[in-house]
């Protein structure tokens, strides 16, 4: 794999980057990668997570990471404050969340298919939420023509170590999928 020289990065190292959902599985890995490349990171969390600041500051220094509590990303005043002095935003948080009432047509079909195992339905809902979230993002870009580059990264499945012990208690689709494989 070809590597990019730091001088060619769109955002220079030592710049501040905002990462939404910094305490999540993907978000915590994004934060770690940014910090390892020399960026300063501000991470959003829905509620106070003191262990998160300690985790990253102990490894990358006292001024490397700060968390900011934003319970609701539709609170634009709080979000605007969090975005002050940042050079980039990496949005990995599922802002709307998902429930069993969050469907797309394929998910509805799978949910009502008698062959779909009950423990697979949460994963199906997760996939539907990601599909609809991306559709909404591309529509917004098309309608608003923002002055930045929008990218959608679509990992099918992620497996890695957890960043901190507190993350072990979170139940997500990757963990559910691993659990279901262990049952086979």
From TrEMBL:
Phosphoprotein is among the record's keywords: no
Name of this protein: Unnamed protein product
All copies of domain NAD-dependent epimerase/dehydratase, residue ranges: 17-92
Pfam families: Epimerase
Species lineage: Eukaryota, Fungi, Dikarya, Ascomycota, Pezizomycotina
Keywords for this protein: Oxidoreductase
InterPro entries, per database record: Epimerase_deHydtase, NAD(P)-bd_dom_sf, NAD(P)_dehydrat-like
Domain of life: Eukaryota
Organism: Aspergillus oryzae
UniProt entry tagged with the keyword Oxidoreductase: yes
Family: Belongs to the NAD(P)-dependent epimerase/dehydratase family. Dihydroflavonol-4-reductase subfamily.
GO molecular function: oxidoreductase activity, acting on the CH-OH group of donors, NAD or NADP as acceptor
């Amino acid at each position: 794999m070809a590597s990019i020289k730091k001088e060619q990065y769109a955002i220079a190292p030592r710049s501040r980057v905002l990462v939404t959902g910094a305490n999540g599985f993907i978000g915590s890995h994004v934060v770690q990668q940014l910090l390892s490349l020399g960026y300063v990171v501000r991470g959003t969390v829905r509620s106070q997570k003191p262990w998160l600041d300690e985790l990253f500051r102990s490894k990358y220094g006292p001024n490397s990471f700060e968390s900011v509590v934003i319970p609701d990303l539709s609170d634009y005043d709080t979000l605007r404050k969090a975005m002050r002095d940042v050079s980039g935003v990496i949005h990995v948080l599922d802002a709307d969340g998902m429930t069993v009432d969050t469907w797309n047509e394929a998910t509805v079909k799978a949910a009502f298919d008698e062959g779909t195992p009950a423990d697979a339905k949460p994963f199906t809902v997760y996939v539907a939420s990601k599909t609809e979230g991306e559709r909404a993002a591309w529509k917004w870009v098309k309608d608003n023509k923002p002055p930045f580059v929008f990218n959608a990264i679509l990992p099918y499945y992620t497996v890695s170590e957890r960043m901190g012990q507190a993350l072990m208690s979170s139940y997500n689709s990757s963990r559910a999928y691993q659990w279901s494989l262990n049952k086979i």
